[in-house]
Amino acid sequence: MTTLNDTPGSNRLHIGIFGKTNSGKSSFINAFTKQNVSIVADAAGTTTDPVYKAMEIHPLGPCVIIDTAGFADRSDLGESRMEKTRLAAEKSDIAVILISAQDAAAAAAGEVGGDFSDEAQWYETFRKKDTPVLFAVSKADLYPQTRIRAITEEITRRTGAEAVAVSAVSGEGMEEVRAALVRILPENYGERSITGDLAGEGDLVLLVMPQDIQAPKGRLILPQVQTIRELLDKKCLVMSVTTDKLPQALATLQRPPKLIITDSQAFGYVYEHKPAESVLTSFSVLFAAYKGDIGYYTEGAKTIEKLNQDSRVLIAECCTHAPLAEDIGREKIPRMLRKRFGDTLRIDHVSGTDYPEDLTGYDLIIQCGACMFNRKYVMARIERAKQQGVPMTNYGVVIAHLTGILDKIAVPV
User: Fold this and answer.
1) What is the per-residue pLDDT across 2-24, written as a single tens digit (0 to 9) for each?
2) Does the domain at residues 4-184 carry the CATH identifier 3.40.50.300?
3) 204-286: CATH, from 2.60.40.3080, 3.10.450.50, 3.40.50.300, 3.40.50.11420
């Protein structure tokens, strides 16, 4: 469960920095951000686990810069480091691939040791993921301008991607990098809305937010905070109550709310007490559409009826909090499923970024709202499930289905 003070930057533009060991990634990041974000050293493999740095970068706005371990790490921990780098790649909205001027010059000249294959392979990986790529030729201060220009033109000719020359020493090319990142920014990035067309200016929106043992003392969880902020930006009239105060709140209103947003675990109660005119949804359903593929989740929920006592279900949480009593993913959803299909129904749990490569042993995956992750990473999870033919759904969608009101729940467009 994520609170306002734990905001992970999940709504920020994620820019992953990739390249061979000692290609100058960490130096590039420090020069690009004008901060000492990453440790710089001559020793190969200085960056082990990816470094995530949230910051504002003009004119891109709020970003997360990801410094990754180098390609072709031959150390004992190399494969483990590459797993982390591949995970960072799944989270990257934009990828910057660094290639040192020495390697690029050797590769362009066909010299022994001049190899562009690793960079080309990673470029192809990003291309298949529809992730925009910018090549940066680092250490450009070591060669004449004409030579560096020929190298960047050759990279663009080979790949079709933009390439710029940079130097962490002189600061050369950093403004060109910013301009290029703006040009290759994914189309319509940042235009997604949590509530979509469900509420607009002047509409009354009632938020039903249980403050049970799972709610952090003195704070609201991140989906609630982000939803409230968006509704205020839309100039909606926002009212918040706990579940037990719902009837009293409705009785004080001169008109029914246009929209009621509840915690999914209160779906049944809120649906029974809401005015007929009010549209109902939940924070989890909103985030299912905001971060993932709501259509795929809805279809996945229908496969619940195909489960039996021998089925196997994976519940995937994004948080790494210690679960408490009545945790929705660890307690409530499993209890609802076992009540219908029996105690022998196998339910596995993963949290954080622990998501299996092989999903084929599962009959259904139930993903949380994913407020901790950016949309790019959630969609990578969904794509893996689709490729392996495994149905997938979401906390709020599955609770609405099990409550029998999925067709009554509003989904934003």
Assistant:
1) 333 334 467 899 999 999 888 88
2) yes
3) 3.40.50.11420
Mean pLDDT of 370-397: 95
CA distance 253 to 260: 13
CB 92 within 8 A of CB 131: yes
What is the residue-averaged pLDDT of the chain?
A: 88
Question: Cβ distance 98 to 28 under 8 Å?
Answer: yes
Beta bridge partners of 237: 204
CATH number of 298-408: 3.40.50.11410
Asked whether 314 and 362 are in contact (CB, 8 A), the reply is: yes
Query: Beta 51-57 vs 61-67: how paired, if at all?
Result: antiparallel
- Could you report the per-residue pLDDT of 73-104, keeping only the tens digit for each? 656 556 777 888 999 999 999 999 999 888 87
Sequence-distant (6+) residues with CB within 8 A of 199 are: 205, 231, 234, 236, 258, 259
H or E, element range at 105? helix 101-109
- For residue 49, give the nearest of 15, 82, 6, 8 by alpha carbon: 82
Residue 382 CA to residue 293 CA, distance in Å, equals: 8
The pLDDT > 70 percentage for the chain reads 88
Q: Which among 205, 200, 369 is positioned nearest to 279, based on CA atoms?
A: 205
Rounded distance, CA 28 to CA 41, Å?
13
Nearest to 93 by CA among 189, 171, 221, 210: 189
Domain locations along the chain: 4-184, 204-286, 298-408
Closest CA to 177 of 97, 251, 69, 92: 97
Confidence tier at 117 by pLDDT (50, 70, 90): confident
H/E element holding 187?
A: none
DSSP conformational letter for 309: T
Q: How would you classify the pairing of strands 162-165 and 204-208?
A: unpaired
DSSP letter at 97 equals E
Q: What are phi and psi of 209, to 5 degrees?
A: -130, 95
**Tokens standing for 283?**
């924070």
Residue 348 is encoded by which pair of tokens? 């596995």
* pTM to 2 decimal places: 0.85
**Residues 85, 73: Cα–Cα separation, whole Å:** 11
Q: Is 401 exposed, middle or buried (0-12, 13-18, 19+ CB in 10 A)?
A: buried
